[in-house]
Task: structure prediction
Amino acid sequence: MSDGTPGERIWIVGASTGIGADLARAYARRGARLVLSARSEQPLIELAAEIGGAEVIAVDTADRASLDAASEQIAAGGPLDRAISLAALYDPGKVLDIDPDTAAHLVTVNLTGSFLFARAAAPLLRDGGQLVLTGSVAGYVGLPQGQMYSASKAGVINLCETLRNELAPRIRVRMISPGFVDTRLTEKNDFRMPGLMQPADAAARIVKGLDGTRFEVHFPRRLTLVLKLLRKLPYALSLPLLKRLAA
Result:
């Protein structure tokens, strides 16, 4: 039932705010049975009440024990049709300026957390179900001011590509690559964000994309296609162009 059929069971991690919350609202309107997760439980309880009910399970994707406990609880309710993780940390700035402990925690949440989520979610999915991880257009190339966030998302992209082959055909692995979305994470940016989108618009793009067959759901295309082109250029051309972005 991972083709948009009403009644599908979907686990969304990172559902307390931003894109995750609007994604939950969008799927609730289609009649999905939702499992909502994030580190903070109270926003999830409020969201569940708003959308007419959902199972709420607080979870920290960087904590294997937390994910194991959540998996046991979810398994008791039957198989999942989709498991979607949007959990991430973001801290813009130059690589050498970031506190090393902060950098390590960011990589743990973004990259190791995606790995741990995939391990926890895969056994919960029915045959043909979707495992969805969130990369970023920041992972396409080493963006100025991208710091460890860009590096960690590049790792998530690589992880998704690997899982796509390893888990097929039983599980359909998909990747979300958002551009700039107006959330509490991008509020930290002090530069112009081309193609800035609202969370509800991003959620609508994700819902539509996951109903399709393409491996990657990326948006907005006027930004993503430019960065994809940069990734294909030889370094002699792409690195000077990227340097101009920091000027």
Q: What stands out?
A: The helical segments are 18-29, 41-50, 64-75, 100-121, 147-167, 199-211, 221-232, 235-245. The chain is about 45% helix and 15% strand. The mean pLDDT is 91. The first strand starts at residue 9 and ends at 13.
